[in-house]
Structure formats: C-alpha cells, structure tokens
Amino acid sequence: MTFPASARNYLLKALAGTPDVLEQLLANRAVDDPLWDFSPDPVRFTLRQVMAHLADWEPIWKERFERTRDESRPFLPSIDEGQMAIDLDYSHQDPLENLRRFRAGRAELVKVLDSLETADWDRPCEREFVGPLTLQMMAGYVLSHDGYHLQQVATYLKEN
Q1: Which of 17, 67, 131, 133 could form a disulfide with 74 if both were Cys (CB 3.0 to 4.6 A apart)?
Q2: 40 φ, ψ to 5°?
C-alpha cells in the first residue's frame, strides 16, 4: 500500500533534512578536532568514518532507486561496508568535505524520489540478505539508516 501524498511529502522532507541536522550537531568542529576520531565501541565507525560512509552511500542509494524505478524487479547486491571503509581509507578522510558530499548526494537522491509517480513507489526490487522491497520501503530504509547514524552522532557528542 502506497503512502498518501502527504506522508510521502513528510518522508521527502525528512530525507532532505538529514544534512541540516548533521550540520547543526557538528557545527564549528575543525577537521583536526579529536571528536572526529572518537568511538567508545571499536566495532562502530568514528564520526570521521560516519561522514565518509554517509557520503559514499548517497550515489549507491540513488542508483538503487533508479534501477528499481527503471528495471523489472532488479537484484541489488549487498555491499561490505567495513571493507569499503578500509579500501577508501575512511579513517583519514576530511569529515567536513564528506558532509558537503553527503549534502550534494542527498539533494540528488531527493530529486529522484520527488520525480516518482505515485505508482512508482510500489515498484519492487530484491535486496540481497534483506529480501523484497518496494521503492517506498527502501526510502524508509534510508531514513532509518539516517536515524541510526544521527543517534550515533548525538551519543558521541553527549559522551564528549
């Protein structure tokens, strides 16, 4: 069942707003601030790594939405996020530049979602290790991913 237009509008505004929330949470942090490299849990990303992760995922999300919109039930393979972080050296990237990349990528993603016809929101895909999803469910997945990392940022800020 597709969300009513008013609910889709809220979803798009929430997705578009994530960069704003991050910028407010991380305002006035210099690139060399030790907070960027803080992590109370060695299996979770540092804030520096979170910013790289979020920026790198925007084109992946966008491609997945476009493929699902344009193809008949595409298979979307899983990505090893930990290996991606190692291969792209997330630990040494500029978090402020990645915040800018995230903002630009998110604007592109929201543009794609905003262009969808009502019926497109029910178009299906198959996510490896997740199962069948619709475009609407995938948008909720992205927003949940945002929420997870926003909570992580807030916790790290609280602990410092």
Answers
A1: 67
A2: -75, -10
- pLDDT score, position 72: 98
Q: Which amino acid is at 123?
A: R
The whole-angstrom separation of Cα 50 and Cα 85 is: 10
What is the pTM assigned to this prediction?
0.95
Closest by CA position to 53, among listed 98, 112, 107: 98
Which of 41, 52, 65 minimizes the C-alpha distance to 113? 65
Considering the four listed CATH numbers 1.20.200.10, 1.20.120.450, 2.40.30.160, 3.30.2060.10, the one that applies to the domain covering 5-158 is 1.20.120.450
Calculate the CA 151 to chain-centre distance. Answer: 13
The Cα 151–Cα 147 span in angstroms is: 6
Parts of the chain with a pLDDT under 50: none
